[in-house]
Amino acid sequence: MSAPSDGFVHWFRSSAPYIHAHRGRTFVIVFGGELLETRGARDFIHDVALLQSLGIRVVLVAGARPQIDAALARRGAEPRYVAGMRVTDDVALACVKEAAGTIDVEMEALFSTSLPNSPMAGARVRVASGNFVTARPVGVIDGVDYEHSGLVRKIDAEAIGQRLDDGAVVLLSSIGYSLTGAAFNVSTPDVASAAAVALRADKIICLTEGKPLTDGRGHALGEISPAEAEAIAKSGRRLGRDVRRHLEAAATAVRRGVRRGHLIERTSNGALLRELFTRDGVGTLVTSETFEDVRLAR
Question: Could you give the C-alpha distances from 42 to 27, 36, 101, 151, 220, in angstroms and in order?
């Protein structure tokens, strides 16, 4: 057997400080339903299982926009959005429930694989889901009735914490439940932000479909403050369709006590691991702290 390359040895040694720093921390990771429709879904699950094996407490928040739109199309219905928010009528709510249930099963299946000679060999990853999100209706805004679209009222941090203490990966969806037992369709970036705050998470990590954030000269933005993130989100800049919501979610979470928010381009292979276990990372960091030797975005 050939010896490992010097590059691998150097990388493995240099990742040790991050492994030590992340152990026992809680990370909330939000991603769109697009991920589960690609070959990268299995690699992502392998990476999440690796995080858990290193002692990281993981909460996943799974979006379902393409799955919901596909279910609507099968019913001959069109998705309706106003001001970037889905109007969830009775038909759309049925599609939301269908998509969330399908994604739950697919995620559990992916975490259950443990073939020999694969990254999941010997892994035993349990997935916990449930009614952890309490929601309230959006209501009527500017004459538009959003019907079954909802906002986060409360996150059951105690129940989620118990599942994490038991060693499970917790899976949250876009469905929240009211005090009367009604189901509402809730924005997953909002769910992730509220969950990160309620759990006092160390990080909120947003896997985006849009391209990485850049400054006016096309240079990648390695670090920005919550204020800068909010300014970019409110600006007229052309951003990926989910980048704006994730920027707002990360900024809100950091302002409310979460130490760091990360925006990472989902399509980049191994981006999650490279962001967490290398010095420079590959995404945009949203933080109120200034890191040494990291140029502040202008």
Answer: 19, 8, 19, 31, 28
